[in-house]
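FAQ: What does a ligand-bound record look like?

Like this one, built around D-mannonic acid:
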Amino acid sequence: MRLHPGCLSTLPADIARPRYDRSRLTIGIVHLGIGAFHRAHQAVYTDDALNRDFGPWGITGVSLRSPDTYDALAPQGGLYTVAVRDAGGEHLRVVGSVTEVLVAPEDPEAVLERLTRPTVRVVTLTVTEKGYCHDPATGALNEDHPGIRHDLANPHRPETAPGLLTEALERRRRAGTAPFTVLSCDNLPSNGDTIAGILRRFASLRDPALGRWVEDNVAFPNSMVDRIVPATTDEDREAVSRHLGWKDAWPVVTEPFSQWVIEDRFPTGRPAWELEGAQLVEDVRPYEFMKLRLLNASHSTMAYLGYLAGYATISETVADPAFARLIRGLMDEEVTPTLPVPPGADLDRYKAALLERFANPALKHRTWQIAMDGTQKLPQRLLGTIRDRLAAGAPIDRLALGVAGWMRYVTGEDETGQPIDVRDPLAARLKAVADGARRSAETLAPALLGVREVFGDDLPGNPAFTGSVTKALGRLLADGARRTVEAQP
Ligand code: CS2
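The answer part, i.e. the structure of the complex:
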């Protein structure tokens, strides 16, 4: 039988469930991009906050592309299971904070209706890096993006996150309703400032007066989000449903660790997330640097080199002593010197915990999944650190090997000659560039460095950078990823 609100009281005692009356829950948050990460992170913090201090903070989840999540959760009344796994076993909880799911392409008016309700005071986003329709190298709105062009031409029938948010804000402005707070929960540098710049520009292009209103009235707090959430497999669905005793069409699987650091700027209020472990701070940047440059940079480096070496998951990759040594060296030697230490943080303990989290055998986090959207991820994960190191005249060998791993990966062919399913908004262009130059590092590296959206205008002209990347790529093409990693100091 399918999981549904009526079965909550019959669940086994060891399974946590909402302790509040969901039938009285009203919507206060709209979330754009209701994927697995949101459901294992923000929705859990909100569920905990509702358990402790019930209030008008129910979540409307919005899918911007596919109806899959709607098809899975709507028959379950929005309920789903979070399976927390580590070497010690699995703990389940059923989350109740998501009250409904909408599919924007199927019914954009319903989404806009929710976004313009005065009771909706916070809009959170996990639309992935590419969902911001921006230039990853600069963070500015990409005005040539096809979705942005569509939404500027059809402002009342938007398809993109910037278009939807701006149309909703415009309707609130006309109705005299206070704006909602926009809380980005994606792995972007200064994610709040970035979405602020994107929306202000988009709004100004629509109407300069609207642009000024957004500038003067809308809050965009920055945040750092962290929890490892692999894509859910059918095997996970079966295992969780067996443990639960009810069929859950789309549970999410995650680790015990969770962190959320938020700039406390919510003029019209927010749930008491801080009572559930979220950290409210003045300045999120040191936490964001720590996480993006240590965790996400290691993830991307292991994703490309691990995949090329034949490893399907992160735990398999880091179990290889040569890869563990590479990641340890990358974090200690090349990244840590660039990091401001966040208040109260112990970087050595943080890094040791990261290696344990990567090694979690109960999480099947695919290298292929993390390898997606490299053009949107490399700038904040590897290239920012590289720029700081170059400015300090410091070596970048391991960071450059990560970049070279991406270059080798986007050629679209693995070391056994099998095709790689490269997923990236620029995949076709990368393939064309690689096909034109892939015989040697001396031609492939400069060709890919020419992708300005990734490398900007500075790095392609920096000989220390281009030399280091070309050398590493040459090794990968000649010796393969495993031997190249083994040869690292
Ligand atoms: C991963 C992240 O897929 C990826 O790019 O590096 O989703 C990562 O698991 C999270 O940022 C961890 O908080």
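Follow-up question: can I read anything off the structure? Yes, for example: The mean pLDDT is 97.
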